[in-house]
């Protein structure tokens, strides 16, 4: 039900033209207002508090659609922030996460490659295990210069921001942030897969649709396997629970598996599309550029494989199959 | 999105299946023979009739078959748990494996009452073992082209032809053979039927084939004017192709398509701990863990479809292709790790396990349908064919 509502809204408002315009520095105000009016910010808040009362699996389905539409705003992070920070009101506007804040020698705070740093108004960050609310307006912003990217590195003065009243180890927010990108990746990969399938059925060479060639079929079959694996891993994370949030190890698997698939899915989609796929005017690039950015966001598979490896190292008693089972238990 | 991917829905093992796991673990702890990693690596290729009988005594052979025929009547989920636990430790299950997974369910689904009464209780007691007679020297991937033929005569069916790659035929009592009962190989799927062939009948010759690991786990079967009783036909004449396809969904979706090499991971971890190398390979271990946890979810999704009485052939093909790729990566990674420090003494048991799996790994994506064939099936499932 939440998914249907957001699907039609995104279909109407988050068009490829709108995404392009915002990426090129246009104002997101119209899209932003439409989403705010719809009340999606409060999706995860309990119904008796005026929220949507959505579960984490509902949330996942909604974010997958944000990924599939290349939504240029941190809707997922904003919804999740409101679920994590319950004790005090958060400001209106768009909130994104920076769970790996670094305190520099001079006391200033640095957050590298903050997803949606260019369109968010606030950041919920973790400096060690201290949660902070940081206005983006107070930060020095360094855009990364990557064409169309909405991520940015942010730096705040030592006294910036306010402490948030949440007790949360940094790892928990890191896991949640990663799981969000896993869902975004899953949604974007499904979209990319659909585009590749559609193109393979339509584009003809040597007198038949290229999808009739076995070599292309096999590429698409392998792509389907990885999209399916990524989708089930991302979804499974939200069916685990540890103190009200998806469990850390499950988030780790979700992000690792989706990040790894993202590279294969993006490159295969481009291979199937031939030259047209890399053009600005064709929509595929809106999603594959994100696959690369989101693969790295909140930890690439390298980071999360290491985190999972550390869990293996700690558990000298368990069979490997038991470890694999417990991740999603 | 592509309808195929929508059909692969996340599912959960029901609570009863979860609870069942403790029973299985307990049984394994008591009854599993002490075996080296290299023997455990053989697992569902490792034939140990005595172990199969112990499982049968516990009620765990023919686990999904009805109680009326001696089965345990467990659902597909509990079978998943049983299979998973046995493979996780590399239990030698080959003897009863095929009967439990394919032949028993096939007889139960398509067999006559007399056939069920005759075979199913013996399967459940691990008294008789089955093998799968599909492939022929000239019919591998193109299974519909088979030429082995059974002709109806006044005395019964007369069988002539040859099967190959039949896993454990030399140690089995019966083979369920896919043969032609009408038409020509050019008629493809039409005219194929399945027979239960007693491998002790006159005219049957079974010749084991030694593989590159020195094992002889598969065989050739020759049929020379083998006289089959009328009741050897299973299911309906001419329906062999449909029957075989229902069987293949069981063959392709299970944990054995993820866990062929998993014993090696445990052995490798133990070795790395002893050598203080585990931190160095933590990232690789984490990746293997992420993949396995995900593949398990996919395999459970297919199991849920089987439990619902569906025949999810394409979904099973998708999981099998990804799963066997994973199974093949493990020995490749371990081999590289073992050779990373030249001059270092090796642990012979680990080396043998890694060697066995490296040698056999190419078969993981052959047996049960090759990678290319499965990708073709997925492409068809996606609507590209
Ligand atoms: C360990 C093991 C156990 C087995 N156990 C059994 C058993 O118990 N019972 C049984 O009946 N069979 C068994 N088999 C046989 C197995 O099912 C076959 O090996 C398999 O179906 C492939 O057939 P083939 O070996 O004749 O190869 P071929 O069919 O000759 O294929 C050779 C290569 O060509 C490729 N190829 C073929 N056709 C196409 C195509 N149309 N498009 C693209 N590529 C193609 C294949 O993918 C493969 O790479 C077993 C095999 C192995 C390895």
From TrEMBL, chain A:
UniProt xrefs under Pfam families: Acyl-CoA_dh_1, Acyl-CoA_dh_N
Boundaries of every Acyl-CoA dehydrogenase/oxidase C-terminal domain copy: 181-301
SUPFAM superfamilies for the chain: Acyl-CoA dehydrogenase C-terminal domain-like, Acyl-CoA dehydrogenase NM domain-like
Coiled-coil portions: none
Source superkingdom: Bacteria
This protein's UniProt keywords: FAD, Flavoprotein, Oxidoreductase
Cofactor(s) required for function per UniProt: FAD
Alphabetized GO MF terms: acyl-CoA dehydrogenase activity; flavin adenine dinucleotide binding
Acyl-CoA dehydrogenase/oxidase N-terminal domain mapped to chain residues: 1-75
Similarity comment: family membership: Belongs to the acyl-CoA dehydrogenase family.
Protein name: Acyl-CoA dehydrogenase
The organism of origin for this protein: Ramlibacter agri
From TrEMBL, chain B:
Required cofactor(s): FAD
Keyword Oxidoreductase set for record: yes
GO molecular function annotations of the record: acyl-CoA dehydrogenase activity; flavin adenine dinucleotide binding
Keywords: Flavoprotein, Oxidoreductase
Organism of this sequence: Ramlibacter agri
Name the UniProt record assigns to this protein: Acyl-CoA dehydrogenase
Acyl-CoA dehydrogenase/oxidase N-terminal domain span: 17-127
SUPFAM superfamilies assigned to the protein according to its UniProt record, in alphabetical order: Acyl-CoA dehydrogenase C-terminal domain-like (SSF47203), Acyl-CoA dehydrogenase NM domain-like (SSF56645)
Annotated InterPro entries: Acyl-CoA_DH_CS (IPR006089), Acyl-CoA_Oxase/DH_mid-dom (IPR006091), Acyl-CoA_Oxase/DH_mid-dom_sf (IPR046373), AcylCo_DH-like_C (IPR036250), AcylCoA_DH/ox_N (IPR013786), AcylCoA_DH/ox_N_sf (IPR037069), AcylCoA_DH/oxidase_NM_dom_sf (IPR009100), Mycobact_Acyl-CoA_DH (IPR052161)
GO cellular component, as recorded: plasma membrane
Acyl-CoA oxidase/dehydrogenase middle domain segment(s): 131-226
One Pfam family, short name: Acyl-CoA_dh_M
């Amino acid at each position: 039900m939440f998914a249907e509502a957001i699907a039609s809204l995104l279909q109407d408002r988050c068009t490829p033209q709108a995404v392009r315009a915002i990426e090129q520095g246009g104002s997101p105000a119209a899209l932003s207002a439409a989403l705010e009016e719809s009340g999606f910010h409060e999706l995860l808040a309990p119904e008796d508090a005026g929220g949507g009362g959505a579960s984490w699996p509902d949330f996942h389905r909604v974010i997958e659609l944000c990924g599939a539409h290349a939504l240029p705003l941190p809707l997922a992070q904003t919804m999740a922030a409101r679920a994590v920070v319950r004790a005090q009101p958060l400001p209106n506007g768009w909130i994104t996460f920076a769970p790996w804040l670094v305190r520099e020698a001079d006391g200033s705070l640095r957050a590298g490659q903050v997803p949606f740093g260019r369109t968010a108004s606030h950041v919920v960050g973790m400096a060690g295990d201290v949660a902070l609310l940081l206005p983006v307006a107070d930060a020095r912003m360094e855009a990364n210069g990557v064409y169309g990217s909405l991520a940015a590195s942010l730096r705040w003065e030592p006294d910036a921001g306010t402490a948030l009243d949440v007790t949360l180890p940094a790892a928990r927010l890191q896991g949640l942030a990663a799981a969000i990108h896993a869902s975004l990746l899953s949604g974007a990969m499904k979209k990319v897969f659909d585009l590749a399938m559609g193109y393979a059925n339509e584009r003809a060479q040597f007198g038949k649709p290229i999808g009739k060639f076995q070599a292309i079929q096999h590429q698409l079959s392998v792509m389907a396997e990885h999209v399916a694996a990524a989708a089930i891993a991302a979804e499974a994370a939200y069916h685990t629970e540890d103190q009200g949030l998806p469990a850390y190890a499950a988030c780790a698997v979700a992000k690792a598996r989706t990040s790894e698939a993202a590279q294969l899915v993006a490159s295969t989609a481009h291979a199937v599309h031939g030259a047209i796929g890399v053009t600005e005017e064709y929509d595929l690039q809106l999603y594959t550029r994100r696959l690369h950015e989101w693969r790295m966001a909140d930890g690439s598979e390298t980071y999360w494989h290491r985190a999972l490896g550390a869990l293996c190292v700690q558990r000298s008693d368990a069979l490997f199959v038991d470890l694999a089972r417990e991740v999603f238990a | 999105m592509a309808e195929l991917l929508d059909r692969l829905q996340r599912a959960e093992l029901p609570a009863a299946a979860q609870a069942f796991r403790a029973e299985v673990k307990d049984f394994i702890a008591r009854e599993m023979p002490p075996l080296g990693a290299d023997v455990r690596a053989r697992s569902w290729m490792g034939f140990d009739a005595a172990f199969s009988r112990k499982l049968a005594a516990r009620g765990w052979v023919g686990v999904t078959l009805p109680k009326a025929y001696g089965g345990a009547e467990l659902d597909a989920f509990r079978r998943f748990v049983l299979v998973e636990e046995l493979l996780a430790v590399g239990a030698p299950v080959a003897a009863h494996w095929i009967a439990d997974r394919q032949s028993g369910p096939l007889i139960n689904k398509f067999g006559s009452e007399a056939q069920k009464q005759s075979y199913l209780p013996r399967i459940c007691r691990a008294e008789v073992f089955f093998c799968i007679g599909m492939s022929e020297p000239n019919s591998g991937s193109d299974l519909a082209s088979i030429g082995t033929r059974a002709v109806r005569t006044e005395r019964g069916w007369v069988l002539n032809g040859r099967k190959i790659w039949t896993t454990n035929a030399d140690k089995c009592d019966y083979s369920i053979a896919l043969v032609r009962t009408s038409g020509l190989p050019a008629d493809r799927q039409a005219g194929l039927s399945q027979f239960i062939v007693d491998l002790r009948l006159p005219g049957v010759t079974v010749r084991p084939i030694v593989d590159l690991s020195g094992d002889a786990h598969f065989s050739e079967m020759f049929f020379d004017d083998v006289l089959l009783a009328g009741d050897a036909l299973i299911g309906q004449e001419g329906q062999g192709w449909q029957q075989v396809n229902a069987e293949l969904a069981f063959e392709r979706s299970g944990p054995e398509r993820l866990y062929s090499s998993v014993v090696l991971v445990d052995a490798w971890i133990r070795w790395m701990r002893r050598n203080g190398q585990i931190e160095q390979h933590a990232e690789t271990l984490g990746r293997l863990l992420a993949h396995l946890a995900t593949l398990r979810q996919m395999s459970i999704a297919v199991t849920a479809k089987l439990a619902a009485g569906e025949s999810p052939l394409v979904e099973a093909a998708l999981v099998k292709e990804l799963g066997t790729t994973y199974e093949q990566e493990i020995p490749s990674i371990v081999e590289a790790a073992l050779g990373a420090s030249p001059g270092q003494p090796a642990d012979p048991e680990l080396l043998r396990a890694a060697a066995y799996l490296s040698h056999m790994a190419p078969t993981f994506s052959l047996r049960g349908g090759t990678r290319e064939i499965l990708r073709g099936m997925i492409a068809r499932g996606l609507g590209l064919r």
